[in-house]
Amino acid sequence: xxxxxxxxxxxxxxxxxxxxxxxxxxxxxxxxxxxxxxxxxxxxxxxxxxxxxxxxxxxxxxxxxxxxxxxxxxxxxxxxxxxxxxxxxxxxxxxxxxxxxxxxxxxxxxxxxxxxxxxxxxxxxxxxxxxxxxxxxxxxxxxxxxxxxxxxxxxxxxxxxxxxxxxxxxxxxxxxxxxxxxxxxxxxxxxxxxxxxxxxxxxxxxxxxxxxxxxxxxxxxxxxxxxxxxxxxxxxxxxxxxxxxxxxxxxxxxxxxxxxxxxxxxxxxxxxxxxxxxxxxxxxxxxxxxxxxxxxxxxxxxxxxxxxxxxxxxxxxxxxxxxxxxxxxxxxxxxxxxxxxxxxxxxxxxxxxxxxxxxxxxxxxxxxxxxxxxxxxxxxxxxxxxxxxxxxxxxxxxxxxxxxxxxxxxxxxxxxxxxxxxx
Length: 423
Ligand code: AMP
Ligand code: GLY
Known about the structure:
Distance between the termini: 48 Å
Keywords: ATP-binding, Ligase, Magnesium, Manganese, Metal-binding, Nucleotide-binding, Purine biosynthesis
Number of helices: 13
Number of domains: 4
Protein name: Phosphoribosylamine--glycine ligase
Enzyme class: ligase
Family: Belongs to the GARS family.
EC number: 6.3.4.13
Bound molecules: adenosine monophosphate, glycine
Radius of gyration: 21 Å
Largest sheet: 9 strands, antiparallel
C-alpha cells in the first residue's frame, strides 16, 4: 500500500514510526515531514494548504491512502478534496471537523444529544457576553469559538479576568477565531484524554492519556500545546471508559450522522472527570500531540489496518491490542515557549534510544546537515516502564543525554499517576 502522511510534528513522527512497521506498507511519503519522519518515509515538500498540489501528488504517485495528522488541513477540507478523487483518507470531512473547528458547533451537538458538558451560551458581541458573566459569577470559562492553537481559552477565577478575556476575543487577539465567544461553566475535577476511532457508524475505543498543558511544574503558568503526557490515565477506570462511550461518544456518533456529518477519523475527547462522572470539555478531530506519542508506544497491533478500517467503514472487523505497560513522554521545548523563542539553535547530540524508548522529533530541521530546533516544542523523549514511575525515570535518564543548550522541560511529567502509585 502506498501511503502519504500529512504533517510535521511529534505526533506525525510517532504515526510514521508505527505505520512504517506495517507489513502492508510498500511506499511511504510524508509532507512536509521532519528529520525524524525522514527515517521512515520519503519527505515531499508539498504546501499542505494547496489542496490541488496534494491531490496532484497523490495522482502522480498512485497513492492509496492518505493519513492526515493535524486539524488545520481537516478543517480546511483536505480530506473532502482527496476523497473527491476516490482516495481513501484517514480524517474527517470539513463539515465533521467542525467538532474541533467550532466550539459553538460542538456545544450545540452536546445540547441536542444530551451529552454531559458545562452549561454554556454563545455570543457575538461583548456587552451581552459580559452581562452573562456578571450574572453567572466566577470561576467561569471564556473561549474563542474557532481554532486558536490552544490559546483561545481563559479559565477565569474572577469576573474581572473573564471580562478582560471577552475584550481580548472581540478586539481580535485570536483573529477570526474570536468573532464568536462561548462562555461556559467551570468544571471541577481531573482531566483525561480519551481516543476512539470512528468510521461514521462503528467505534473502536483506543486508549486514554493525560496531558500536562501548563508550562510550569506543578501545573502552573500559562497553557501550552502540551508539555508531556502518559498513557493510560488511571482516572479513566473501566467504568469511566464505559460511561464515556455510552454517554459521550455513542451519542456524538449518532448525532453527527443524523445531522448529516458522519464522523470518520479519531475522536480525541478532552474530558473532565467530575463528581458526576465524565463531562466533555472539548473534541479534537485528530490525535493529541504529545498524547499520540505515548499511544503509539503502547499499541501492539499494526496501526495501518486500523486507520484504514476507519476510512473504509469496517471498524467492526478490527481490534486493537495494547501493552499494559505505561508510556510517558517529556516535551523538550525552546526556552521562551510558549512565548517567543530563538530559532535554529543547534541540537548537538541525541541519545540512542533502545527497546521501549524513543526520541520523537517535533520542531526540528536540518541546516547544512546539522540538526537545529525550529519550533516551540522540539523533541518528545518517550519511554515505557512497568509503572509510570519507571517510565518517568527512563524518560528523564534519556532526556539528560540530549545535548541542546536552548532546550527546557518540566521535570514532573506524570506526577499525578506517580502520586497514586505511591499511595
Ligand atoms: P480547551 O482548548 O477547550 O481544551 O481548553 C484548554 C484547557 O482549559 C483545558 O484543557 C482545561 O484545562 C481548561 N478548560 C476548558 N474548559 C474548561 C471548563 N469548562 N472547566 C474547567 N477547565 C476548563
Ligand atoms: N495535547 C493537546 C492537543 O493535542 O490538543
